[in-house]
Design brief:
The protein has ten helices and twelve strands. The protein folds into two domains: about 100 residues, no CATH class; about 150 residues, Rossmann fold. About 0% of the residues have low confidence. With about 290 residues, it is of the alpha/beta class. Helix 3 crosses helix 9. Helices cover about 35% and strands about 25% of the residues. The relative contact order is 0.12. A six-stranded mixed beta sheet has the order 1-4-3-2-6-5. Strands 9-8-7-10-11-12 form a six-stranded parallel beta sheet, sandwiched between helices.
Length: about 290
């Protein structure tokens, strides 16, 4: 279902970039003949919503379709679409437009932090400058301050049913389990290891805690290979225990570990449009002005 939202393109662009949601900025860069809008018209497109308009009609829906195909294929960067309003788009205007599609990936990674205690807060603070979308959970009421909830790319959630919370995580999320309750930690781990599309699973605690959890998981019938997916304790850099047990120091090692886990090959560098596409834009502009 597509939602046509009342939010303007510039307001939605700011919000989507702030919240790390994949989106496309579509800009009409040139036009010739009769067209619904003039160059400079913009709209923003996500997988389930559109903001503002390029004038409507078939060519706009073709633009939306092209943008969503690029999002689904993760073809980030700049792309140029050309529309003959009497040909490709079947509109009666008879004009011609070039639409520049700027495809933004949103967050580089999704990280779920279960627990808003001292270590959880330090992890959130240290992660703030990074392009990660954080999903922060805690079962205690009023644990999240208003100031924290204003942080970009941070969603604060009340943790009710651990299984439901796990089921709602986006695919390829990196999960960190560090609640104030061992029972909650166990329920979360039991749910996370059954999701094959979770990117990584980390559990805070001692070796004895993890040994106890492993025994419970095995007795509950969980597969041994799935249990091995859990890192515990988290933040153990190069298999060395950290003597500094302050929340900040622990969080620092956890975020460092996450940087390694989320380090994926960079997207192809985009310095602009391909020469042929840029040349076509210049030629179209000259034709329009002549």
């Amino acid at each position: 279902m597509t939602l046509t939202a009342p939010e303007s393109w510039h307001a939605s662009l700011h919000r989507l970039q702030r919240d790390g949601i994949p989106h496309v900025l579509a800009t009409q860069v040139t036009s010739a003949g009769s067209t619904p809008r003039e160059p400079g018209a913009r709209m923003v497109i996500t997988l389930d919503a559109i903001f503002d308009t390029l004038g409507g009609g078939t060519f706009e829906w073709q633009t939306i379709s092209a943008a969503r195909n690029l999002l689904q294929q993760q073809r980030f960067g700049l792309h140029l679409e050309a529309f003959s309003l009497g040909g490709r788009s079947g509109q009666c205007c008879g004009g011609f437009v070039n639409i520049l599609l700027e495809v933004f990936p949103g967050a580089e990674a999704h990280v779920a932090i279960f627990g808003a205690g001292h270590v959880g807060r330090e992890i959130v603070n240290l992660s703030a400058p990074l392009a990660w979308q954080l999903h922060w959970y805690d079962s205690r009421s009023d644990i999240f301050s208003e100031q924290l909830q204003q942080q970009p790319r941070l969603g604060c959630h009340r943790l009710g049913d651990p299984q439901r919370a796990v089921s709602e995580l986006p695919p390829q999320t990196h999960a960190l389990v560090l609640t104030h309750s061992h029972d909650q930690d166990y329920a979360l781990i039991a749910g996370l290891i059954e999701r094959d599309d979770v990117a990584s699973i980390g559990l805070i605690g001692s070796d004895s805690k993890w040994s106890s959890f492993q025994g419970r998981l095995k007795r509950a019938g969980h597969d041994a290979e799935k249990i091995k997916r859990v890192r515990s304790p988290i933040g153990r850099i190069h298999a060395t225990k950290l003597n500094n047990k302050t929340p900040y120091a622990i969080a620092l090692t956890v975020v460092t570990e996450l940087l390694w886990l989320t380090d994926t090959p960079s997207l192809p560098e985009t310095r602009g449009l391909a020469p042929d596409a840029a040349r076509a834009l210049v030629d179209d502009t000259k034709t329009t002005q002549s």
